[in-house]
Automatic annotation (TrEMBL):
The protein, known as: GCN5-related N-acetyltransferase
Superkingdom of origin: Bacteria
Family of this protein: Belongs to the acetyltransferase family. RimJ subfamily.
Occurrences of domain N-acetyltransferase (ranges): 14-183
Single GO term (MF): protein-N-terminal-alanine acetyltransferase activity
Keywords assigned by UniProt, alphabetized: Acyltransferase, Transferase
Keyword Cell inner membrane: no
GO cellular component terms given for this protein: cytoplasm
InterPro entries: Acyl_CoA_acyltransferase, GNAT_dom, N-acetyltransferase
Length: 203
């Protein structure tokens, strides 16, 4: 297996774990329920793709192969035992760069509860500690307010706009790049996030 994989990362009710084929029914139902919420941000192919869409099992096998080869970490995101989204580390590069990119999506019905900032913080800490990476980046459409709030809460640096960066819904779209290096968070991203955004006291 690749360095840092498989892995299970937890903080309270938030749990990241490998995406599995048995998640198929729940994952497909979640995506169907969130079509309007997620489609404006979903990457698409600029080249027409012929034939039927791959099955969920094929999708998971592809992601698992990438994880075993060390280029991607496909996490399922659970909250209180329920599948609510996904966090994926991609473009993992070692050598003199030691960097990766993080993407994520979350169901609308649990948005705004601090789930995704916690999940992304766990993921970045895993990249820095278990994988030994030096830099992570997150690329976000300038219009995607919920995703922008995640990186703002975690204190990632805004590195500016990448013009026509990614193909989405039939057009090349600009993205803002946010990044963090290991030296900026010696205490860890989750620790810094909790210090800045303490959980409310229990009633």
């Amino acid at each position: 297996m690749a360095q840092g994989w498989p892995a299970v990362l937890t903080d309270g009710p938030v749990r990241l774990r490998p995406l599995r084929r048995r998640d198929g029914a729940a994952w497909l139902a979640l995506r169907a329920m969130n079509t309007t919420w997620l489609e404006p941000w979903d990457a698409t192919s600029p080249v027409p793709v012929d034939g039927p869409r791959p099955s969920f099992g094929s999708f998971v096998r592809m992601l698992s192969a990438q994880a075993r080869s060390g280029v991607s970490l496909p996490f399922a995101l659970d909250h209180q035992g329920e599948l609510v989204g996904q966090v994926t580390v991609s473009s993992i590069t070692y050598g003199s760069l030691r960097s990766a990119s993080i993407g994520y999506w979350l169901s609308h019905h649990v948005a705004g509860r601090g789930i995704m900032p916690t999940a992304v913080a766990l993921t970045i800490d895993h990249c820095f500690v278990a994988l030994g990476l030096h830099r992570v980046e997150i690329n976000i459409r300038p219009e995607n307010g919920p995703s922008l709030r995640v990186v703002d809460k975690l204190g990632l640096r805004d590195e500016g706009v990448r013009e026509r960066f990614l193909h989405i819904q039939g057009q090349w779209c600009d993205h803002r790049t946010f990044a963090l290096t290991a030296e900026e968070v010696p205490e860890g991203v989750l620790h810094r996030y909790r210090a800045r955004h303490p959980a409310p006291p229990m009633p």
